[in-house]
Structures are given as structure tokens and as C-alpha cells.
Fold:
Amino acid sequence: MKMDKKIFNELRRLLAFIAFTLLIMQVNAQVSDTLTGVVKDITTKRIIVGAKVYTTDNSSVAMTNDSGAFSLKLSSFKRSIVVVAPGYNMREVYVRKGLKNISVNIYPDTYSNFYTKSLVLQESTDKTTQINNTNSSVLDNRNSITVENEIQKNPSANIRVIQHSGVQGTGATMFIRGYNSLNTNAQPLILVDGVVYDNLNNWNSLFNGNLLNGLNCIDVNDIESINIIKDGVSIYGSKAGNGIIELRTKRGKDMVTRITASTMVGYNSEPQFMPMMNADQYKIYLSDLLDNNTNNNQVTNQYFLNDDPQFLYYKQYHNTTNWKNLVYRNSMTQSYHVSANGGDEIALYNLSMGFTNAQSTINENDMTRLNARFNSNVSLSDKLSTKFDISYTQVTRKLQNEGIAELKDNNVIDAPGYLSLIKAPFLSPYQYSNDGNQSAKLENYDFIGIANPLAIQQYGVGNEIQSVFNLTVQPEYKFSKSLTLNSQFSYNFTSLSENSFRPMYGVAPYINSYTGIISLNQVKTQFVNQINMLSDTRLNWHKTYQKHNVNILAGIRFIQSGIKAEYASGHNTGSDEVKEMSSGLSFKSVGGIDDSYRDLNYYAQGSYSFQRKYLIDVAMAFESNSRFGSQAKDGVSLFGVRWAAFPSINGAWVLSSEDFLKSLDFINYLKLRVGYGMSGNDGIESTTSRTYLNVIKYYSNAVGLQINNIANPEIQWETVTKRNIGIDADLFDSKLSIGLDLYNNTTDNLIVLKSLKQVSGLINYYSNDGKLENKGVEFNFNSKLITLPTFQVEAGASIAFNSNKILSLPDGDYTTSVFDGEVLTAINQPIGQFYGYQTRGVFATAEAASAANLSYRTSTGLLIPFTAGDVIFSDNYPDGVIDEKDKTVIGNSQPDFYGNISLSTRYKQLKLDVLFNYVYGNEIYNYLRSQLESGSSYYNQTSAMLNRWRSEGQTTEMPKSTFSDPKGNNRFSDRWIEDGSYIRLKNIQLSYELPVNSTYIQGFTVWAAVSNLITFTKYLGVDPEFSGSNNILYQGIDSGILPQSRSFNVGLKINL
Amino acid sequence: MAVVQSCNDEWEQHYTAKNDFVSDKTLWDAISTNPDLTIFSQLLKENGYDKILSGSQMYTVWAPVDSSLQHYDFTNKDIVKEFIGNHIARLSYSVLGLIDEKVTMLNTKVLRLKYTDGKFLFGNIEIIERNNVVNNGILHTLKSEVAFYPNIWEYLPKNAEIDSVYKYLYSFNQIVFDEKHSIPGDVNESGQLVYLDSVFINSNKMFRTVGYLNNEDSTYSILLPNNKAWNSSYAKIKNYFKFFNQNQSVADTLQRHYTTLALVRDLSFSNSMQIAPTDSMISTSGNIFYTPSYLFDNAKTLSVSNGKIFISDSLLFNHYDSWNKKINVEAEKISGRENTLSTVFSRSSAGSVIVPGISGNKYIEVTPTSTASNPTITFEIPNTLSANYNIYCVFVPKTINNTPVSDLKPCKVYYQLTYMKENGLSTTQNFTTGNYISEKDKLHKMLVTSNFKFPFANYGQDVVSVKLKVISNVKQSETTQYTRDMLIDCIILEPVQ
Structure:
């Protein structure tokens, strides 16, 4: 077995390493010396009283006295001390041999902390992997209403977070170190308090352009910390191939009761769209289209061509309506949160409640969240304690379709936002009465069948209710100081209901060309229930023998997850007053799933450190998952199922503790990390490994069974192998910290669709084949530039380069059709390349066109030459014919690099935070613009179409307008591919801590923030940051979903 | 950082209209400021086109330059309208390449825009300056004006030589309500539909007979009799339409009406209907003329915008091709049929191969109600003219019923013809003496009488004055020889050539 060999090799290497380290151990007699020192605030240079100073193994602890001094016993091989003080950042200092007296400067906790931010979770730097942490001191007083916004703001995280859209609570697509999967889930694993948070990840919303987002059920105010874990994640087995985002919620801290109330009010400005043609310009554009396909009678019968003011419909066709203003709006956000934190010797608790209402910048679209959470730590005896957490969140959203639906033929255009762009500006949203006065009644669909967006918003329905209930019990038994048994049991219930109704008034009936149905109105509804149960029991043994520090962890994790969903839709309720699903509807379609899987994972991790200089972590997970096939090819058979093995080994060397760096005083801390590990991706449908039948309806009458899948018993996880080397450094008395990582991750056994022979009656099946690679560099630095008593400045930046390449594919290169375009998947090339035609402007004259001698071939084989006003396509395969052969790579949705820039200044109690994020080198397929500048339909166009080719000799970039585009000027080409690079002032925040001195009020903070204040970009769409789908092939395709806009927020927080 | 680029530059560059080629002026601006187009622009302004060409509808204007219009007479308002409409079209037409397009002008005329011999021509006039693209259209300038070609309908009043036919056709002009293009509103208190916008159009009911001669989309070839031809034809045809009425003026009116109608019904030929015009042509009223060149040979030919006009000195139609057609009365037609001492069954011969050629595939079977009686049946003959006819009765043999050969017997009949005499009174004439015995085994077109002249026309009248009675003439003793069952297909009146 290939896998067995791999594991064996890993184990052999591990043993060799341990033997080597044991060999070089010096068996010195323990010599202890005494260290004295003083702890000071770096900004005020004042001494700090009551700071805790201790050795990293807690063998010696001291507190600073009234003069800030301490005295501590150090052994010869444990020379790292840690200093902590309330209101200050933790700092770790290595004390070199011979040093008897030191002065430690520590930073107020308003600065970012190198030691917690990138190195540790608990108070120890004994980590061989890098973790990017954001904690509550940063998360409080923020204007985000959902967590992914805060993840995006972590300046050193190097995680690529792309907000889905401007719809409130719709979430973000997140990539840790590139695209680690081709066809399955490429999103990181989310852990909330150690529990896998699999919240309807694989389920679709009824609403086009809307993505279900579990994270919107978590109140940012409840978050204690966010950790981004990129490697060393083997113990999460086949779930962690895309990295981990670990969230921890706030818990009771101490027995002092603290009540915190915070509120936030915000204003989101209407998005600024590309300018569209006005009524007169659009009318002329329409005439231009009529030119080629209408006879004179049709023209004279068009009401909009009649400029006679006496004409009955004159007023109806002579308006200057700004549809965008009627559909979009300036919207409000409000959020309230109260929490109580405290307890006694027996129990500590944190109780919180929150209410959030956030309107989107499009009408009839908002999100209301009500959340409550109770976290407690109960100490039952000296040895037995338990955590008991319970939470409930309900999110109610009003939604509507956003953007352009991909399958246009089977769908009517009913996204109000898109309609407001394409709708004729000379029409009125309201009806005119017979005597020529505008009435309050909305107008029906128009003369070219385009719906009235206001009617959809008024008569349509779009509701979503999502609720999450979680119960977690986590008892812990301490057998001894070094041995602990901890068991976590969690029950998570998620439900989602959605219903949508497209009215008949205001929307033209449409004929589905595929099914032949005539739909007047449509009802859709779905109910989804998901129950996730997790049990995670671990035994932890920890021991320190002189220079040796050993930590061994062994555990069993069991996950049972089930999703039940029902979906129904029907047409033609008969009246817009009837908006519900019923048996009487026409063309009903129903469906549903009842899908569950189980996952059992035995894992173990051993950590060893020598003198806290040399660290090694070895981990291994054995996992069996009901999604895997019974003969998974890389698995090991045991107990009748296949087991996957995920080993990892990570090592670190703390160079700063070495004597040979003694002379380099400016180095406070320097660690070199090396890691190699495997994890997986189990994003397979649980039915893939089974042959099953599906119920079908035959000609709407008979019900039958049809084979729907042919089992692939060899189906298995994708194997992600991560190789990493990194440096963490803290320099110049902690004024400069640097992180640098190089990685090379490969994914084997890609889950791919393979073709079946026709005789099977099925088209394709899933299989494991192919390989891809992500290589990259991540760099971040943070500098505390000014550390004066009243004025402090800190700046940081991060940059990440990722290069992605497909190494092998089962059936060779192929393209996937997405939104009238094509995405290439090819060996030795990155994922997500746009594949289409290149253009070189527009033929200005008939002579130029005939000189170029280019033609296109009609479906009947006829060659039709391109003429003046047509686009000049590059004849890359020089045969004079523009066809498939001329297609080439015209862009890539993946950026060359991306990152953040942050600046934080503080003057007395006033604090200003500025955060930029940027992306460079990615291309966007502006599908929205391809529709709004096609010059081939009756849709209103952008004002760029005023420059369309009109006559001989005109030099322009925009081709002539022709109805239905017979020449294909509008085809998928680099005309629609744009530079998606941008740098954005993501957030600017000013906060002021009122100097309160009251027994009742402990703290009072007011703040004001602006998001997305300014964006520098060449992109011609509204917002270069969007992601219409979590599918990697759909990245960088702008289908016109609601863009993010500027928002202004003010808030205050009171601590009692 | 390289990505930093003011967002405004790219955005502005892309979305701002550039006026370097397409000027932001309107057509009216372009025409009124052009020093070579002062006469044309003056003309446009006087007729209110300055506003139309400044609006937000797209037009293409072919403007003739001043030098060609110096001596043009613009006093006639109708001609001015024709003139302006002949130089402006809706939508935009660029002039480039090897263009060859048909352009529908505002006056509905279709003009040709084409490239020949290095020149761009519009209605055969050279375009001097082309493709001046402005905000709401395109302006071209022409060397001279484009001649206005009338259509057939417009031509009619322009030639005094043909004013008889012109006056006749134009006398049917009327303004009618156009329901299709009117916009219906609510129903009023008395239950009538009230139209929000009522559209009235010029119409002429003769269009249905002679074709839509005012339509630019269809083309016709039309024979127009000059006044001399009109009169001579009238004199010839009116004899066929002699009517009797107590009131002589009513009789005269009927005669005039049907005579003129007969005169014009076959004048017009829609070009799209003619499959092989040298072999035969079908007129708009549906009559077919074989080898029709004789009709057009001596006519004066001229082209108009929707076809060709043939002005003729004499109309050479044969009466039996045009107005005096064969009359065929199907026996199975119930109205106007009467029978005595008999029962009538309507039978179908569809699919019968035994007796082919039964008109309409239907016939009747008249059987006596008793063994003692001879049955009779009477047919009304409508639309007879005051002309000579050969009259036939068509018998069907019993073989059609698969009757055994041994049982076959012919019928023996006689006839009574009822018609109006010169004095205006109805008279009945018996035809008993002929050999009125039918063929027993095949279809028999039995001649009743030949060259029979009706004194008066019975054309288009509600009361039919001409009737033919068929009477079985089989004596009791002859029943072994003849049958009293009569199987009749139809009655035919053929005009005598």
C-alpha cells in the first residue's frame, strides 16, 4: 500500500529525529542562579508594580514589588521568563547565561502583541506552527456584524477573504494558502469552541446570488479570539485540508462581576453604479437596434417612437426615471449587545444577548439577528470540572434575487437590482391614469417584457429564517497534575426555511423553452434541518523532566451529521394574493434529501521540547468516514471499514536562545519552524460511494425508479500534503516583529468527474485522480514606531504570494462553461484561468475590415466576413476564420499577491486605526458589463455605449450595436476581462475612551468608523471585491450581485 | 505601490461619451448651420421639422444642396410634403462599403442606397458628403433632390386621360375607424366600449377588388383604360346587365353598378401572385387569363413606385373569362331547391372510382314516394346575365351504388324553364321533345337547350327569377325500361362564346 509506506517513512524519520536529539543532550548538573530585574512600561518608562514574572515551566514565580523589582531563580536550561501585567501585553524574554540583572519593557495592550498574535494560544511559546490570532481586545468596538469581516481585518493573517456581496450577513469566501481543491469544498474548516461548525455549507439558497452563511449566526461581540491555523492540522484529519479558522467565545474570567453594554448605529450609502444611458440616449440606442431587424410597420407601431404630445401614451413613454434610485437606498444598521461576566468559586459564567438589524443597500433586503449565549465553567471538585455552554441564535432575513442568473433561458429576469440597470429610463414605475396623471399603482411589465423591479419588491416575497441551537458539555477530570481527561459533547441543531414568490403583476410571463411551461408566477419553498453531534474525548499527559518537556495527547472524535431537506416549487397560483405553495399549482416540482454521515477519528499528538530550544511535534490521525468508499484506495482496512491516516511532523528551533546569537542583542526572539503534514478533504457526497436509484416522474404521470449513480467503492478523501518553513522574529526590544513563511502544499487524489460509457445510461461518476500544488510566501511585519507616553504609533503590513498549478488530471485539459464564458483547467497551469478570444479594437472603416480579411463561420458553415464596426478578434490560429482555435488564456481569477496594511495611532485616550487591504494581479470577468455593453439587446446600456461605432471612419473601442449580435462581437473575450487589482481603505476608526472615575462605571468608549471609504482600482465595475460562489471556478466573475458600499458607524460601550 | 491608480481615470475614460467623431449636435443643428443647405433647412423649418430633427428620435437625412433647388417650386404644400418625406428616413443608415440597401422613407417610399462605379447613390442621386454622425442621426448631402415617384393610387388623379377609372375608384374613398390600432378603454353606462385613442384611416372598399394600390410594400401591374376604352368597354358590358324593374331608374342603377364593377374587376394583377405570367395571369378578383399578353400589347407603359401601369386604348377581355362566367348549380345545395312526389337524399361520391368526375363529389338521389308517381325537382339558377347560354343537366348513373348491371335503367325526363320575359312577367317554357334519356352506366351531361337567351339579367338579385324543373317522364308501362329514380349531380349554364 502506497499510504502505508508513507506512514512508515514518516515514523522512521520521527524516530531518527528523537534519537538524534537524545544523543546531543548534555547531562549537566543543574545549576541555578538568581535573576533580579525591573519591569517598566515602555511608553511612560515608569516601573510597573504587581507584574507577574515566571519561568516558562512555572517552577519559579515572582511579583514585582513597589519599586517594580523582582527576583527569580533560573536553572541553567530554563532561561525564558514571561512577564504579564493587567493592561499590558505578555512578553517573553530569554535570559542569557551570566546575565544577573535585566530590565524588561512591556507594552500596553493597545499595541498588538507578537507573542499572542502569532505564536501561542495559551501562555506558552512552545508551538511548532504558526497561528494568527485576533482577540477580543481588538474585536470589541468594531463595526462588523459578522465574523468574516473581522477575519479580513487581521493585518497579519494572510488569509484571503473575499466578501460575497453587499447583502448583509451573506458572508465571505475564504482561502488559506490558495485553492487546495478543484471540485469540492475549498473553504477552511470552522471550529467554534472546538466544535466543527458545518452549518449548511453544502446547501444552496433559493435566492440567486445569495449564499448561506453559518457565521452570521455568531455575534462578533461574543468572540474572544479568532485563530487562523494554516498547517499542523493533521489531528483534524480529512476536514482540515483547507486550513482552520478557530473561534472561541467569551467565558467567565474571574469572580468580579462585569456588565458590558454596547451599541452601534450605522449608515450604509447607496452603491454608486456605472452611469447608464439617459432616456434620450437610450431611445436613440433602441432606434439603432431596430435598424437591422425591423420593418417599417413595426417601427411606427412602437409607442416610444411617437413624440406627439397628444398621443395617449406620450406621458407613459416620456419619463426620466432613475430606476437605480428607486431600487437601491441608503440603509441603516443597528446593533445592541449586553453581557454579564462573573461567578464564584464554584462557577464562572458569561451570559450575553444581542440584537442586530442590518439593512442592505437594496430595498426589501435586510437581516435581523437575535442571539443569546450562556457559557459556564463549573468546578465540581478539585479534580472534576465541566464546561456547560448553551446558545441560540435566530437570523431572519428578507432577500431577493441578486445579479444575473446563470441559466438565462430557463429563468425570467427578476433580480430587482439588475432590472433597475437594464430597465428603460423613459418608462414610469407608476401607471398614468386616462386623464394623464400619474397614479400610485405600479406599472406592469413593459413593452419589451422587462419586469418592473418595484412590483417584484412590493408584491414578491423573499424570506429566510435560520436558527442555530447549540448545547455543549465538556467535563474534565484531572487525575494528576500531568494527566487530564477531557471529553466534549456537543449537539448542534440548525434549521433553515426559505420561501420566495415571484408575482405575476409586473413580471412578464415567460416560457421555459426546456420544459415548455408558461409561468405566470412562481412559489418556491425549502426547509432544511441539520443536526450535528460531536463527541471528542482526549487524554492529555504532560511532564517536564529537567530539560525535557513532553506533552502527549490522545483522543477519539466522533461526528454524526445529518441533513434533511425538502424543496418544492410550483407555478401559477392564479393570483398574486396567493403566495404560498399548494397542491393546486401547475408544474410542481418537489425534492429533498435525507443525508447523513459519520466520522470516527483516533488521533494522537506528541510534543517534545529540549531546553525550550528544540521543539518537535508529531501527530497522527486515523479516520474512518462513511463518505469514503469501502475500498478507498489509500486506506487501510480494519474492522470492516477503510481508515485514512494523516501523519504530521513539525519542528522548531528557537535560535534566540542559542548562545551563538548572544552578540546580536537586538534579537529578542527568533524561531525557525519546519513542518510536514498531511490532512484531507472529505467534500464528497455521501452517496458517491453507493449505487442508488432515484425517483423520477415520467411525462408528469408515471413514477419510476432510475439508476442515478454507479458506485465507486474506491472513492476517498483528497490528500493535502503541507510543507512549510517559517521564521518568527521579535526584534529591537519588541519594536519590530516579523513573520515569514514559505510553503509548498500539494493535493493528491483530487475528486474529479470522469465520463462513463454511454451504455451505462449515466454521464459521469466521481473518482480520485489528479494533483495540484500551491506554493507561496507569506510575510508580515509589525512595527511599534512611536512609543511616547501620550503618543503611540504602530504600523504593520502583510503580503502573501501564492502560485497554484495543476500537476495532473485524469482526462487531460478541459474547459468549464461559466456565465457565457469559459474557465480552463489544464495541466501545469493555474486553476481559474479565463479562456476566450483576444481583441484588438474595432474596425473603423470598411477598408480596414476587408484588409484584415477575417470571417466567422455560421452554424451552416457559411463564412461571413467581419465588417466596419465589428470587433477585431485576434486570429491566433491564422486561418482567417475566428473560431474555437483562436481562443487563448485571457486572464486568471487568482491574484499574484494580496495583503493588508495597518496603521494605529493613539494620542492620550484617542485612538485612530486605519486598515487597507489590497489584491494585485487578478483578473475579473465583468459579466455584468458584458450584458450592459453588449449592444445586442433592448436592455439599457452604460454610457460607454454612447461611443459605439456609428459610422465609417469612427475609431472607437465599442463595436456597433446589432440586435442579437449575429457576428458574436459580444462573445467571451478580453473585452470583459479586467484588472481586478485594488487597494482599499477597508476601515478607518476613531475611538475615544472617556476617562471615567466612578464606582459604577468602569469604562466608557465611544467610537466612529468608516468602512470601504475609498478604493483605488482600474476595475470598471462597482466593486472589485465580490464572490458569487464558494466554487473556485466561479471566482472573479462579476454577475452584478449587490456591491459593498461605504458604511459609517458610531458606537459606544459601557463597562459596569 | 503599482496598483495605486486613481479610480476616476479609468472609469471616466470608459464611461464618458467622446465627442470627437459623434458630435453632440442634433441633426437640425447640423442642417441649419450648413451653408449649402439653406433652402432645404428653410423648407424643414416652415413645415415644423426643425423640432422633430432636434428630438431624441433617430433619423437619417439626405439633404439636397442649394444649387440644385434654386428653381424648384415649393408653393404647393402637397408637393412639399412629398418632397421632405422623400429625403428623411427613420433610423440610421451609414453609407459605406459595397452598400446595397432599401431605405423606407418617411413618406413610405422605398428608395435604393447603393454603391456603383466608385460612387454612392441614393435614389440614383450622388451623395456628395456622407456620414456626418450627430447625436440623433446621420446627415448625408445629395447633389440634387431625389425624384418623387407616385404609387398607382397617387398616379390616378394625375392623368386626365384616365379620369373615368380614377373617378370611379376614388368615389369609394372613405375614412374608417381602425379598431386594431385604436386603444380601447372602459365600457360606458350604456354598455358600449369607449376608445381612449380612436384611430381613423383612409380606406377604400375597392381595394379588396383591385388590390391595395396605395401600399408601397406590394407591387402590381395594372391595366388602366383611358376614357375611350372605358366608354367602349362600358357600352359592351352593359348589355349583359339589363335588369327589369317597375321603376326604370332602379333598373338603370343596377345596370350601371354591375357594369362598372365588371369593368374594373380584372384590371389589376398583384405581382407576387403571378407564377408564370407569360402563360397565365390571375387578377386580384381571382379570374385567370391564359397567354395574357394580348391584354397588355398595345398599352402605354409607365413605372410607378409600387409597380407598372398599362394605359390601354381598349380592354380586350373576353366576356366568358371575366364577367360572364359559367354558372354551375350543385344539386346537393338545399337552398333554392324544391321537389314533389319524391324524397331527396344527398349522396357523397368521395372515393368512388366507378364514376369519376362528379362535381363537388356530391350528388342527390331523387326517389318517388309511391310506385304510381313520377317525381320532380326544381333548381333555382342565380346570377344569370342577359346573355345566351347552353343549359345542361348532369345525371349520375346508378352504377355508383354498385347496382348490378342487369338492374341498370336510364332515367327519362323532361324540363320546365322559368324566367322573366321581355314584358317583365314570369313565364315557363317546357322542353319535352328532346332525347331526354340519360346514359345508364356513365355520367351524362344532358343538353336541355342550347343558345337560350335570357332577356334580363338576374345577377346579384335576392329573388331568383330563373328556375329549372326536372320532371321524371316514365309511364307506368315504361318502368321496366326506365327508372323513376333520378341521380343528379348539377345544372350547368355555359355562356355561348
Q: What stands out?
A: The first strand of chain A starts at residue 32 and ends at 41.
